[in-house]
Amino acid sequence: MKLEIAEPVDGVVNVALIGRLDTPGVDKIETKLTASLVPRGARAIVDLSQVEFAGSLAIRMFITIAKALARNNGKLVLYAPQPLLQQVFETASLNDIVPIRADAATAAALARG
Amino acid sequence: MNPGQSKSVENSPGSTDREPLSGGSRAADHAGRTVLATHATVTDAVTLREDLKSYLVVIEQDEPVARHSIGLEPLTVGRDSARDIVLADAQVSRLHLQILLVNGEVVVEDLGSSNGTFLEGRRLTAPAVLPPEGWVQVGARVLKHERRSQREIEREEELRRDLEKARSYVQSLLPPPIGSGSIRTDWFFRPSTQLGGDAFSYGALDEEHFAAYLVDVAGHGVGAAMHSVTVLNVLRQRALPKTDFRDPAQVLSSLNTMFPMESHDELYFTIWYGVYSRLTRRLSFAAAGHHPGFLFARGAEPLPLRTPGPMIGAVPQPLYVNADAQVPPDAVLYLFSDGAFEITGADGRQSGLDEFLPLLGVDDPDATQEAERIYRAVRRRARPGPLDDDCSILILRFD
């Protein structure tokens, strides 16, 4: 599992996740992702186009970070999930809690507010 | 749609990746200066790193059963009692393979076995390096290379004992199968090594109504298991205030009020909850972040029983809705956790619900064993070693 965090553009941080968000994958990135976004109340968008799988721990990670950011004047928006991920997110009604958009531009616009 | 409202369902279908010492330990000391790590932490970590040793862990039916230290002297593996590791398996040759350290790396070599040694799914034709966390398959057994310090092994052993206690407790709360009557049940529950948060139950609410539900707490370990047990107990004892347990959406709303994740160690859970009326043969149900249950009836496509709604505890006052379905004679309802279908195959490919569904609704000569048969089929598809998550399969048969 790889995590790439870009420098902010117009106040929005783009995070790219690459690999499988199963239990080991989440264990590998969760602390770094949380520490990179939450303390600074980032407005962040997360590129999921290269994530092959997301389990329940991944959903929990996104919810926890989104809630922590919301308390800190930040925002988390996910974008470009593959069909299998989209199905998992729909089952979990994740969109009710963490917004999910089709592409980076609409995700960034939402993150900016 | 408000809670309690109903709608009809259409009848359609290696490396541990530790941070480097300097990176992970950056902190300000009391004088406000930035230090990379204290002397104590460096010493501790160096000692730990030097203490790392390679072990071969024997895994049988998802469970680690033995751990052997790997050294410069070859560890021989075979069916013969003279071997260092004896595997009582007809597929294993008397002298099957050997494993040893060569230049600090673990090397595995097949010694002319009849049925072969498979490294990460590929048959060995020459000695090969077995990396940390790598595995070989020999007959029905899996041999995994773990690189651990003595301290890590002791911690793991302690955790394993705690998990075993928690697992026994969860299993003790699961209901006995019902073998006769107008509703018969069968189930199979296989906790993962780390113990996920699955739990389920069923039972009569009154003379007319029969409830069944399956809970899956997001996370692993004792914490997730104990959370699922708490939820299970609340449902079994009907301990939700001002709640009609015949109304699935109302039950989910009450659970959400009782279990906000902020107050429960950031744990949330998914649930499928259904209530069957013996009088009307209607099944009313609601789900919270959970994939559908499936109703199978003769001559009809499998009916997915799904409703929208977020997982329990994630947001305050979410909207849960009821749906219902008519239950034809001899229909079968399948409930299962995501651990039953989110499977990684031996080739590394991820399978999902589409691959799982064909395992259901198959005429089974011994219906009381169907849940276990389904699990065995899932197990055969999965890569060797323990499954990633708990696997729960609950089957209800209606007369």
What does this structure look like?
The complex is a heterodimer of chains A (113) and B (399). Chain A contains four helices and five strands, in the order ββαβαβαβα. Chain A has a single domain (2-112), classed as STAS domain (Transcription Regulator spoIIAA, 2-Layer Sandwich), CATH 3.30.750.24. In chain A, a hairpin with a 6-residue loop joins strand 1 and strand 2. Chain A is an alpha/beta fold. Helix content of chain A is 43%, strand content 29%. Chain B is built from seven helices and 25 strands. In chain B, the strands form six sheets. Chain B has a six-stranded antiparallel sheet. In chain B, strand 9 and strand 10 form a beta hairpin. In chain B, helix 3 runs parallel beside helix 4 (222-236). Chain B is elongated, with a radius of gyration of 25 Å. The two termini of chain B are 32 Å apart. The interface between A and B is medium-sized, with 22 and 31 residues.
Distance between the termini of chain B: 32 Å
Q: List segments of chain B where confidence is low: pLDDT < 50 over at least 5 consecutive residues.
A: 1-48
Sheet of most strands of chain B: 6 strands, antiparallel
DSSP helical segment count of chain B: 7
Radius of gyration of chain A: 12 Å
Q: Helix coverage percent of residues of chain B?
A: 10-25%
Number of strands of chain A: 5
Strand content of chain B: 25-35%
How many structurally independent domains of chain A? 1
Q: From the 3D coordinates, which CATH architecture of chain A would you assign?
A: 2-Layer Sandwich
Task: Provide the gyration radius of chain B in Å.
Answer: 25 Å
The gross shape of chain B turns out to be elongated
Mean pLDDT of chain A: 93
Please name the CATH topology of chain A.
Transcription Regulator spoIIAA
Strand order of the largest sheet of chain A: 1-2-3-4-5
By oligomeric state, this entry counts as heterodimer
Strand-pairing-aware structural class of chain B: alpha+beta
Name the average pLDDT of chain B. Answer: 85
Unreliable runs of chain A, pLDDT <50, ≥5 residues?
none
Describe the global form of chain A.
Answer: globular
Order of helices and strands of chain A: EEHEHEHEH
